[in-house]
Amino acid sequence: MGIAMTIWDQSRECMSRDQLEQLQLERLQATLNRVYRNVSFYKKTFDRIGFDPEDIDDLGALSVLPFTSRKDLAAAYPYEMFAVPLREVVRIHASSGTLENPSIVGYTANDVRHWQDLVARLLTAVGVTRDDVVQVAFNYGLFTGAFGLHYGIERIGASVVPASVGNTRRQVSILKDYRTTTLVCTPGYALRIAQVLERMGIDPKTLALKRGIFGGEPWDEQMRTAVEQQLYIRVYDNYGLSEVMGPGVAGECLNRQGLHLAEDHFIAEIVDPVTGQILPDGSTGELVLTTITKEAFPVIRFRTGDLTSLDRTACPCGRTLARIAGIAGRCDDIVIVKGVNIHPVEVGPILREVTGTEPAYQLVVDRDDAYQDRLGIRIAVSEALFFDKMEKQRVMVDRLRKKIRDTLGVTPDIYLVEAASIGTDSETAPRVVDKRTRGKPGA
Ligand SMILES: [Zn+2]
Questions:
Q1: pTM for this predicted structure
Q2: What fold characterizes domain 1-331?
Q3: Residues with CB under 5 A from ligand 1 (ion)
């Protein structure tokens, strides 16, 4: 049976929930003690609410602690968040953050070892072995993506090709001549490579390429399908962020029903991005992560800003680690309509449920003559989606309107439009067009 072969660390990835939670609790206790002793930000935070790390005796107690935000990390620039002296730090990276100061993150030798193991996990989970040639087309530099993947690939014993980014024709030559089997990059860059292959007259079927392991930007099933069809490969999603470690935090297995989160190293919570309240499994909200093994740069309840949901049900692959849904977007995308917070990304799954496909769509927020907010949803019509029979179309639009009202709390107007009027590229077409004149609450 292939289970042992396709799992990097069965003793950790297949633990029972009880064992896992016991391990998480022990590691959380150690982490809270470490940050309380060594990081003045956490000392102040804990003292302010009268929290003694010695008192924590169940995982639920984590929820009493305040969040850590990117602003907190930026204010600690450059090294104030480090929990060990610099002499114990063997590697330094930085986040690409949008704030003025990027977060500088450090790793001890143990941190680097864990990181390699966690990347080895996600590679093994999608079938990478020592027989593979893995081309890393991420920017080698301060950003954690390239080096994180790089050392995990070596850990597996596969051959790593540090191609970095830029010069796409050269990337294509490497793909072809080095007989790359696995491509690591952003999904957007994979599509660019597909274009250049076509321009160079190279048939992707003649390449040794079998799979793509993508991350670094939010993407969706449409993009996955596009890359798979253009490059003739299987594509897998993975998730990580510099502030928490880098790649290796979560990754899909061959079943591709969510990304297994390394719960023996990170505790995940899903919270309402506005109220901060913890949401039940299955609800979409902001991912909050607490590191429980990091020595140099631990973070407690770090708000990632990424929207996803959590699934703790069993996965056919045998791993018991919870899965997060592919990151659908950022909390910053929230739009407030009639006082209701709406995540535009929540519309996608509703469209898929009702229509069986996920067409491109756009939210348009406007005000009517009485200055009341109106939510419009423009949906790209395709042959697969809407048949020419007007009656069936009307039934489907009614179902959509009702389902969206029930889920989001606002009744939308639905417009069926030509794909070109939305734009087919998610980067060029904003998901939300807000036509209200500067009247956003709090703006
Ligand atoms: Zn699985």
A1: 0.80
A2: Rossmann fold (3.40.50)
A3: 253, 255, 315, 317, 319
